[in-house]
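User: My advisor asked me to double-check a structure prediction for TM2 domain-containing protein before group meeting. I don't want to rely on an old file, so could you generate it fresh from this sequence?
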Amino acid sequence: MANVLRHLPELEGMELGYIQGLMKNMDEDQASLFAQVYRARRKDAQMILILTLLGFFGFAGLHRFTLGQVGLGILYILTLGLCFIGTIVDLVNYKSLAYEYNVKMAHETLSMLSLHFPNGGSNA
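Assistant: Sure, here is a fresh prediction for TM2 domain-containing protein from the sequence you gave:
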């Protein structure tokens, strides 16, 4: 069983618990490789907050582009963050936006690693 905090000490809250569940059956080599790939792909909630705040200064939608939601990013640019209402809602929900993106990235990382370690090590 790999120690999540040893490999990804920056995780906290719900993300920590979720990643711990994904890594519980991995050996140290698998956990280390997973941590390297996941760390490169995940987004920090504070960065999403900062990009969302830029929406009030004419750069609406940057956080949606960062989260891979290009269509919503373009919509936010064209509508000034849906008349600032969408930006305000995203400002309240920035942690859940980052969490949902990171869960998606964790599963994609796990899928990539299952090709590298085909005999298991994960519970997904």
